[in-house]
Design a protein that fits this description.
Elements (H helix, E strand, L loop, with lengths): L1 H21 L1 H7 L2 H31 L3 H14 L2 H15 L4 H31 L7 H36 L8 H24 L8 H36 L3 H27 L10
Amino acid sequence: MHIINTNLEAQVIEPIVSRTRRWHPTVRYLSQTEVHVYALSISASVLLSLYPFLTVMFSLVRFFNSVLAEQALNVALRDYFPGELGIFIQRNLLANLDKPAHSRFQIVSLVLLMLTANGIFEPLEVALNRAWGAVTNRSYLRNQLMSFGLILLCGSLVIASAMLTAVNQGFVQSRIDGNIPAWMPLLLFKLVAVPLTMLALFLTYWLLPNCKVPARPLIRVSIAVGGALEVLKYVARAVWPWLDTKLTNEYDVFSHSVEVMLFGMVASFIVLAGAEWTVRHAKPVAVKKPV
């Protein structure tokens, strides 16, 4: 009987221990000081680029005169930023979009987006280069050109997500008499947005490092990281009442800025952990040759 119990314990415990050990290198990687510097730099750039990015995206869907697409962007905004933070961003964003001088503001927002969003990809490239063992980073000019291309790709995916959601919602409305259920717009958005988010992650993992990166292992990690970021939104929604109260007491009028930075920092850790995990499980390739 003792032998049987020992065998059962080995069959149950050993796989758990083995799976836990797989993540030990990732945990050690995330505990490094330089990784915290990367995540903090990325989250600060997210804070600086968020408002110009949203302004440009909403301006584009208004240019195409798509009411359903704008509704999809509002659904996305409330989905990514729960509670008072989402309401605050949406209220101030729409107020600025309705200003008579908005055309000038849109140009300024586009310029600010180009300058600040590039700051997201600069530390991210350095982090990915270090993970893959690239010898050198791109020059500042080449990094800015690559960042600009990724901004266009990500922005195009956001617009495509809004437009496809609008098409799906229009199709559903044409098949259902009366108003669609309240949960339907969010479901339609997620059916489009989650796969496109995974595609954006794949393109970033594949194109941003300054070395040759195998594409196949990036597919799995992009799906996993995209799913983890989706889970992060629900975790944030669950702790948001407590977190919002805590940060409001500590930071007062700066609480929303701190909330965006905290969310961006945790998301950065997830993205960087996915890169580290991919490097350890990818097949050996000549990753140290700069391109």
